[in-house]
Amino acid sequence: MSEVSTGSTTEGAEGRALADHTVSVLGGTGPQGRGLARRFAAAGLTVVIGSRSAERAGETAAELAEATGGTVTGADNAGAAAAGDIVVVAVPWDGHGELLAGLADALAGKIVVDCVNPLGFDKQGAYALPVEEGSAAQQAAALLPDSTVVGAFHNVSAVLLDDPAVETVDTDVLVLGEVRAATDLVQALADTIPGVRGIFGGRLRNAHQVEALTANLISVNRRYKAHSGLRITDV
């Protein structure tokens, strides 16, 4: 693994730097995690699938490696956290805090990309849940003081990401964080997915509304039978 510099870099250098990093996806056997892992592997990045079950992670990794021709391996979440330079958190909200608290040492010194949306569901549909720290990304930052936490990939359709027939995913990804070099690198990570563009969306204190917006997109999808995303204009 290589360490992530916090110094300024050029846009081209960020893209090249990704090739030197292993991307781990915690919760990589779930819909969102698997879809992101598929796209990163297809882009030529080295990917580690994490799951509560190392066996299940290995099976998913083998499937994605065969489908994409990429380098994909599997491990339990702790093993994946240790293996990655950039670690994407794509686990269910109800297990988010407990998982990260237990992995704080393994994630120290790394960029942690949190894409978890704290949502509830009832007969009226999806709605945003209150989070004591303000958002899932802020909770991650509080639990991982020695990591660089970035919020991203909250509003991307898991269905589109994991569908090999979908060549391009027509959406922008809002990237939030405190360290410019880290958000630049995660924007470059988003850019590896055809059709996707990473856009800086502010500091972590602005993550709540980005996470909550997923509830609105779910409502759009149900009404219009779609897999909606976001586009930022004039940028």
| Total individual domains | 1
So what's the CATH class? Alpha Beta
What is the averaged pLDDT score? 94
Largest sheet: 8 strands, mixed
Supply the helix-strand structural class: alpha/beta
Low-confidence stretches: 1-11
Q: Name the CATH homologous superfamily.
A: NAD(P)-binding Rossmann-like Domain
Q: What proportion of the residues is helical, as a percent range? A: 40-55%
Cross-sheet strand order for the largest sheet: 3-2-1-4-5-8-9-10
What portion of the residues fall into strands of 2 or more residues?
15-25%
- Can you tell me the overall shape? globular
Number of strands: 10
Number of helices: 10
The separation of the N and C termini measures 34 Å
Organism: Nocardioides luti
GO molecular function: coenzyme F420 binding; cupric reductase (NADH) activity; ferric-chelate reductase (NADPH) activity; NADP binding; oxidoreductase activity, acting on NAD(P)H
InterPro entries: NAD(P)-bd_dom_sf, NpdG, P5C_Rdtase_cat_N, STEAP_metalloreductase
Protein name: NADPH-dependent F420 reductase
Descriptive report:
This is NADPH-dependent F420 reductase. This protein has helices at 11-18, 31-42, 54-68, 77-83, 96-102, 104-107, 136-143, 158-161, 180-191, 207-224, and strands at 22-26, 46-51, 72-76, 86-89, 111-114, 119-122, 125-128, 148-151, 171-177, 196-202. The chain is α/β, with parallel strands linked by helices and 235 residues long. The protein has one domain (11-224): Rossmann fold (3-Layer(aba) Sandwich). Strand 9, helix 9 and strand 10 (196-202) form a beta-alpha-beta unit. The protein is globular, with a radius of gyration of 16 Å.
